[in-house]
């Protein structure tokens, strides 16, 4: 279930919509995938070691707090919580974008698509309010469904090329290879790889976390990275650039072009399911982070209150309300522009956790709390540099949004610290889910 949580959160909207944004970049996109996968694997190894050393609690707080104190832990957890509900908003938009293949009226700007996206957010909020096991079951089911078009695209492409029914793809008309193009591609592809750390966010709900969580993170990152490299690159190369740039659902366009129009419509439905499955997983995460902070007296007690299904009801309502607000407030951009903007904001905000985790590993290693080899230290430095590079690639507007949203947590932290000192570990046992 932990692997499904990680892979399910990684395989959401990104792989299905990114070919449209990556296609003009040509070889930059393929190199960007390689950079993102390598950087993500470095971070997965680093986080796996941290999870073995600090298995309890919510990783977004515990990693940074162990190295730099509760103030840094709060800011990192706050920024990651923001990335969770912005991901939820992005995935809801992605689901509507794929459904626009079936219902073209959903493809434009307006209140109708916005309200449908918001309805998806609240549907899976309700699922999570009925408990983490039900959310985990939904994650397993949707993961199985979303793998069908991803693996299917590779099989179809291999068959078409092997039988000579498709021309060998070229990259004519695309952007030449350059640092700016690779950086832009790496930022976009990183969004599709966000979520490998998902099982570490719910550490107190996992059985045997010091063994289960590290394995789940590495398996999720490696398996998903390989699937992405094969599948997304296949779609990017084999569908004409002009068609991809006009498509709200790249995989549906691929299957419609290579197999038949009706197949494209079926794949659009699968892609929507994929986005909704990842939405379900991030709704789970968006509830657990403030819950953990509230148990530490860093947020008001109401954020720690659970319903009878052990779900943090107030936190879920607040988080989904914010996700709904950001969808409605920005829907005038249209599906394509909104998705691209939300990808960059979400990525730049989540990267704060990756940077802090890498720095925490180096600090704990230097202080003797984490015993590592020279190879591990090198991977940690590479993961840190990769995260900084991806933050740069997000662009000024998205980075400013992420910094402003993160800074909004500072007054809350200062108020809570003044009213009551932060407690350290959680004050009660949690029911494990995996």
> Could you tell me the radius of gyration in angstroms?
21 Å
* The CATH topology: Amino acid/polyamine transporter I
| Individual helix count | 18
E-strand count: 0
**Into how many domains do the coordinates divide?**
1
Oligomer: single chain
Largest sheet, if any? none
Protein model, in words:
The chain is an all-alpha fold. The chain has a single domain (2-419), classed as Amino acid/polyamine transporter I. The chain is built from 18 helices and no strands. The protein has helices at 2-10, 14-22, 27-53, 59-68, 70-99, 111-129, 132-162, 179-193, 198-201, 209-238, 241-245, 250-258, 261-295, 313-330, 335-366, 374-393, 396-407, 409-419. The radius of gyration is 21 Å and the shape is globular. It starts with a helix and ends in a 15-residue tail after the last helix. Mean pLDDT is 83; it is low at 422-434.
Topology, please?
Blueprint: H1 2-10, H2 14-22, H3 27-53, H4 59-68, H5 70-99, H6 111-129, H7 132-162, H8 179-193, H9 198-201, H10 209-238, H11 241-245, H12 250-258, H13 261-295, H14 313-330, H15 335-366, H16 374-393, H17 396-407, H18 409-419
Summarize the structure.
The chain has 434 residues and is an all-alpha fold. It has helices at 2-10, 14-22, 27-53, 59-68, 70-99, 111-129, 132-162, 179-193, 198-201, 209-238, 241-245, 250-258, 261-295, 313-330, 335-366, 374-393, 396-407, 409-419.
